[in-house]
Amino acid sequence: MTAVQAPPAPPTARRRPKAVARVGLYALLAANALVVAVFFVQAGFGANALVLLGRLTGLYAALLMAFQLLLVARLPWLDRRIGMDRLTLWHRWTGFGLLWTLLGHAVFIAFGYAEMSSMDPVSQLVDLAETVEGVLRAVVALALILVVGAVSARRARRRLAYETWHFIHLYTYVAVVLAFTHQVAVGSTFTASPAATAYWYGLWGAALTAVIAGRLVLPLWRNLRHQLRVTAVVPESDHVVSVHITGRDLHRLPARAGQFFLWRFLTKDRWWQANPFSLSAAPDGRTLRLTAKAAGDGSAALRHLQPGTRVFAEGPYGAFTTLHRTRPDTLLIAGGVGVTPIRALLEELRGHAVVLYRVATDTDAVLHDELRELAVAKGAELHLITGPAVPDRLAPGELSRLVPDLTGRDVYVCGPPGMTTAVLRTLRELGVPKQQIHYERFSLAG
Fold this sequence. Notes:
With 446 residues, this protein is α/β, with parallel strands linked by helices. The chain has helices spanning 17-42, 49-71, 76-82, 84-115, 121-131, 135-152, 154-159, 162-169, 171-186, 194-226, 297-300, 339-348, 368-378, 396-402, 417-429, and strands at residues 229-235, 240-246, 260-265, 275-278, 287-293, 311-317, 330-335, 353-359, 381-386, 410-414, 437-439. The chain is 50% helix and 15% strand. β7, α12 (339-348) and β8 (353-359) form a beta-alpha-beta unit. α2 packs parallel to α10 and α5 packs across α6 (135-152). It is elongated and about 80 Å long. It starts with 16 loop residues before the first helix and ends in a 7-residue tail after the last strand.
């Protein structure tokens, strides 16, 4: 068993990292919304009501667009405290808010100027695009946002491969540039005062800097520094494989048990494909290990990796760590291959732990031998729960019987979506406080 550095003590209820980060984000958005309103008022009310509404919705669309960039910048401080899954979900809902504010901006402006002319709203919009600098760029930006919004709808998203969806989503950055140049060209609020101009340049500059730093500079720097390579590929069962990775100065990589990376294995046929896999062992400063089930082309190809293959890893990501503990004792609930971050967490945890591992059959219990050895070494309880999905072996009655002091523990849950949803519902029914429940839905696109 590899020794790991002891994690810090659980944070107190007065200083929960997730709550601090959320309040900080809400306060940042509210403060900027207030500043935008002040600059809007300072610019004056020289136009009719519809044009004024169009300008106001346009300003808040610009603010939402900048906020969206912050949410997907993958800044380590935010990601460790909130988690990529929740940041991605907030990005998704902010995107729909952006879509509606942009549509409102276009409609109010077209109808407002049409009211002051003899044109119909559509002809007025066409005329503005042809005669006013920057309006055509805004129309193109709106069209791009509409396309991205359409492919991000749940039904469409399920039909697209992640790489296809991601490529289309990159057009959002083109829309951002077009929207900013439109604001510079025709935004009366943008030029109303030196303070307003400085504010908008600062806002867009900070948002774009965050994206470039978090999505490009930091991953490139870390991979150049650590030079990751595959050292071994170990089959765990007929459908599950572990990949061992090493590199330089891994003790400087700020990875924690429970986190995941976006892994790119630089072979000629897979270098372009990124897959999110959790660490299946606590980082020890010398090696990293991921364990994956052959559920798709990317994970199935892991079995054929050769030692020495170069690896490009983005991360570590995720808030599924001991940073968010509020109690000294813990309950870990794993389902299927969701055991991988649970196994890593058990290795790092201090205090008494109970592990519930839910699988259909004994043969599906990958890493069970390692879990059993860890449980013995750490004085933890391990329960392997097998059988079909119905009846629910993790229903309220069963869970209370297995863990009578459930409400006094932090609970970490990782498994298939259906199982995770059912367990979370059970925990709520049993009265486990929300701040003691930790889970993460591992998904690239939300």
